[in-house]
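Long-time lurker, first post. I've been practising inverse folding by hand and with some scripts of my own, and I keep getting stuck on stretches where the structure tokens seem ambiguous. Below is the full token string for one chain I'm working on. Before anyone asks, I'm not after the true native sequence, just a reasonable design that respects the backbone. If someone could post their per-position residues I'd love to compare against what I wrote down in my notebook.
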């Protein structure tokens, strides 16, 4: 077991039955100009929520094939945040990879997450825009890091659990095997990859490659970065990619925390590692 550390209008949705009666959990919908669609979002409020108080916000992203209800339905998120005064926003993002699509101008998911969603949330809740964090799992882990590196002054903290950070570097391999299923039996990722990144635009890929972005932005003050990956993750490229990424963070003198733990690419691992992620976020954002 290894743990590496380095300090340096509202529409009601139907939620799973287990969530009914938990008044901290709110569901809403709003129209996003960036994606030309009505998008759904789940919001977890602090235990002693007070509308007159400004709260930091964590944008918590779902993975490929997931949805906005995953985090509250499949982890103990509400329990783990009982003593953390933060508003957690969990948006629907489909299989977008959290980027402005290179092939479809009506699918600008980076703009949706970075502009439309915060504007909507701020219109309903008292958000402290000077204390924002972003985190996610798998596709959402990649999304959290690519958004943080493309907007290095926006967030104080960025968290990645089992992030698909080999994307877009391995796109050519994916395109060469368009029918290959991803681990877990969720089907081929070929359509979402082509829609998000195109099939040949190297400039666009580089602009959304966290390794390229880190080299470009290493002189900038970056958010504190938290990474965790399971040693037995079925995506065999994820573990070496995380080691390389955190080696680069160390080389450039950035503040980060890296966990390598026994585990695979599943909710048991993410339920376990979201806990230290939240604890570190609370420290970095001075919530405790």
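-- Answer (accepted) --
I ran through it position by position. Result:
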């Amino acid at each position: 077991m290894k743990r590496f550390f380095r300090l340096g209008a509202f529409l009601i949705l139907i939620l799973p039955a287990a969530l009914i009666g938990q008044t901290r959990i709110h569901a809403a919908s709003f129209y996003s100009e960036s994606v030309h669609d009505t998008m759904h979002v789940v919001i977890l409020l602090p235990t002693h929520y007070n509308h007159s108080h400004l709260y930091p916000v964590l944008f918590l992203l779902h993975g490929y094939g997931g949805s906005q209800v995953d985090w509250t339905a499949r982890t103990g998120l509400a329990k783990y945040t009982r003593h953390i005064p933060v508003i957690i926003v969990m948006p629907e993002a489909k299989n977008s990879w959290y980027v402005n699509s290179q092939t479809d101008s009506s699918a600008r998911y980076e703009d949706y997450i970075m502009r439309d969603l915060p504007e909507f949330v701020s219109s309903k809740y008292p958000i402290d825009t000077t204390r924002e964090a972003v985190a996610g799992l798998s596709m959402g882990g990649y999304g959290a890091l690519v958004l943080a590196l493309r907007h290095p002054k926006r967030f104080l903290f960025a968290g990645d659990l089992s992030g698909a950070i080999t994307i877009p570097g391995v796109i050519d391999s994916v395109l060469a095997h368009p029918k290959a299923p991803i681990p877990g039996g969720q089907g081929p990722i070929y359509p979402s990859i082509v829609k998000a990144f195109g099939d040949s635009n190297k400039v666009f890929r580089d602009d959304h490659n966290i390794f390229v972005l880190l080299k470009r932005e290493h002189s900038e003050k970056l958010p504190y970065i938290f990474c965790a990956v399971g040693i037995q993750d079925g995506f065999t490229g994820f573990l070496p990619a995380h080691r390389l990424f955190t080696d680069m963070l160390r080389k450039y003198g950035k503040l980060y925390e890296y966990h390598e733990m026994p585990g695979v690419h599943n909710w048991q691992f993410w339920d376990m590692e979201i806990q230290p992620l939240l604890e570190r976020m609370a420290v970095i954002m001075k919530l405790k």
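A couple of notes from the structure itself: The longest helix spans residues 267-284. The chain is about 35% helix and 20% strand. Happy to go over any region you disagree with.
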